[in-house]
Amino acid sequence: MPIMTQIIGTGSYLPERVVTNDDLAKTVDTTDEWIRDRTGIRQRHIAAEGELTSDLAFNAANRALEAAGMVPQEIDMIIVGTTTPDHTFPATSARVQAMLNTGNGFAFDLQAVCSGFIYGLSVADNFIRMGQINTALVIGAETMSRLIDWQDRNTCVLFGDGAGAVVLRGEEVAEGEKRGVLSTHLHSNGHLYDLLHASGGPSWTQTAGHIRMQGKDVFRHAVTNLASVVDEALEANGLGYDDIDWLVPHQANQRILDGTARKLGLPKSRVVVTVAEHANTSAASVPLALDTAVRDGRIQRGQLLMMEAMGAGLTWGAGLVRF
Ligand code: ACO
Predict the structure, then answer these.
(1) Average pLDDT in the 276-303 region?
(2) Are 63 and 208 in the same domain?
(3) pLDDT (tens digit, 9 = 90+) per residue, 258-274?
(4) Which pLDDT does position 103 carry in this prediction?
(5) What is the distance between the alpha carbons of residues 1 and 8, in angstroms, rounded to a whole number?
(6) Do 202 and 140 reside in the same domain of the chain?
(7) Is the pLDDT of residue 56 over 90?
(8) Domain that holds residue 72
């Protein structure tokens, strides 16, 4: 019997401290009205001093494991999607593995910026379907606040910190049964490297740098690429827009969410939106949105979920899941 990857638990974590648009307007030349109009963002969570990406990841992972009814020792592989690792090396996932007190299996980080979770889901799904592992923890965790230039109003209003996680398990399904991860679709275009980048790096400046972005170009590519990868995922499965119960998109900007939903002809009532409260949490945003909608009861078992994301690279991708 074929093996398909099931999402058996979700979890998320947000740092306690909330920074509102009005708070930001005290330090940069911006307004709550401008930020809400252009992005839909009202507030973001910011990690406390000394609170690291691994702490956020660990908390989200624990909640996902609890939801799955599993202990860390049952996990074969840990992937942390992050662009804000604790250290340049080792991987943040290694620290998370130690925090979870599990020495079995293996752990690595995955750098695809805002697409990190979708890339991680795809990698884990392939490992599971190939039979190399049976269980995986895929985490998206970021402390974007540490990469922000707090004097740059073009970018500092857009991002937040947080983490989301899923526990995946391979299960045998009947021939022809479509349950779990139906397919994943990944893309990148390195020619667009400069559109969105950090102004530093170990090999370049020996500092982490700050986020730099050509916002309008990123916006344009986001709507086009996201709509096209959603089409690709539906077509690969012989499904149409009407079959999607929930679009669980990367939460970058309300206007990107609206633009993508409009292009797909999806009503807003079928789009999970958390950008107002969380801002853009990069690799954490899709699993954070997923966990939010699972826990508040919107997402139900058996429903069809379309997850998608685009980030720096540019990278983008989608994962279609019968939850
Ligand atoms: N407050 C007030 N004014 C601002 C702010 C701010 N926070 N930020 C920029 N402005 C000003 C600009 O300086 C500019 O002023 P000028 O005309 O005097 O030069 C003016 O507002 C208009 O700027 P634009 O860049 O034209 O504004 P735009 O309508 O494009 O909105 C935004 C900017 C929100 C960044 C938009 O381009 C966007 O959403 N881009 C997508 C970027 C994104 O989401 N990136 C996240 C990572 S990628 C991803 O996750 C998909």
Answers:
(1) 98
(2) no
(3) 988 888 889 999 999 99
(4) 76
(5) 20
(6) no
(7) yes
(8) 3-172
* Domain co-membership, 165 together with 30: yes
Q: How far is CA 46 from CA 110, 148, 219, in A?
A: 22, 11, 24
Considering 114, 185, 197, 253, which one is annotated as catalytic? 114
Query: Do residues 119 and 112 lie in contact, with contact meaning Cβ atoms separated by under 8 Å?
Result: yes
Total number of residues shown for the chain: 323
What the block records as the tokens of 27 is 């330090």
What is the value of pTM for the model shown? 0.96
Q: Is 114 part of the annotated catalytic residue set?
A: yes
Mean pLDDT value of segment 222-243: 95
Distance from residue 215's CA to the centre of ligand 1 (Å): 6
* Bridging pattern class, strands 180-188 and 315-322: antiparallel
C-alpha to C-alpha distance for 28 and 18, rounded to whole angstroms: 17
Q: What's the pLDDT at 305?
A: 98
Taking CB atoms and a 6 Å cutoff, what residues make up the pocket around ligand 1? 30, 34-35, 38-39, 114, 153-154, 157-158, 196, 213, 215-216, 218-219, 222, 250, 252-253, 280, 310-311
